[in-house]
Amino acid sequence: AGVKPKKGSEDEDTSVFCLELLVAITLNNRDRIELLWPDVYEHISNIVQSTVMPCAQVEKAVFGLLRICHRLLPYKENITDELLKSLQLVLKLDARVADTYYEQITQEVSNLVKANASHIRSQLGWRTITSLLSITARHLESSEAGFDALYFIMSDGAHILPANFVLCVDAAKQFAESRVGQVERSVVALDLLAGSVNCLEKWTNDAKQVMEEEEVAKMLQDIGDMWLRLVQGLKKLCLDQREEVRNHALLLLQNCLTGSVGIHIPHDLWLQCFDQVIFTVLDDLLEIS
Which InterPro entries match (predicted)? Predict the structure, then answer.
């Protein structure tokens, strides 16, 4: 006679089956997603936030959520932010659960970004994505996939927007600072960081050509603030203990400061830059020389 399965095992199998069915129904009813989504999200959320050890149910919940977002983002602009916000559940995983699945999660997030970057427009959506990628900068197994996704977003300014500029700069800085991976990756992350200045120049030109005077003034102020955030990020890397990273950061900082003629930087912002960036870097370099 066969061994009778334990009741707990049967319960988990049933829960996993129901969860898979729920995900399948959601994917097959994308035209009714607005009606289904609150209940689907609540069910997945309860599983994610109540599970403290890796198991089949939480695995199906997390990857089911990623599948739903990946598949529905191109079709449902009106709930894009809701779908992306739901991915914050991944950030709430218990550490033991997250560590078990994070490499695979990051690969799925990378695939989602590559397929749907053009559909992500809001700061909220990008904040979720960059948070998921930034975490991987400190995670050995998942950092390669995380950086690959960030490179896809930032390379040649492909998907950099005013809505995600600061978020991308901060994410690139985290990869540049990280000791996970080779020094070469930190150098490439620095290049992404500094290369984003080209977007600021483009947005400056675009604003002057198509906007009203008041809108131009506001946009130029925002661009100036983004530029300051960029050079502040480079400043931190100018003190990195790794010589190759430090020297490359200094060179790129110099380029950003001297090559910003296409960006409107107000006098008060230059004063702030000299005070917070240039003089600080010089003092710190003299101190460690």
Answer: ARM-type_fold
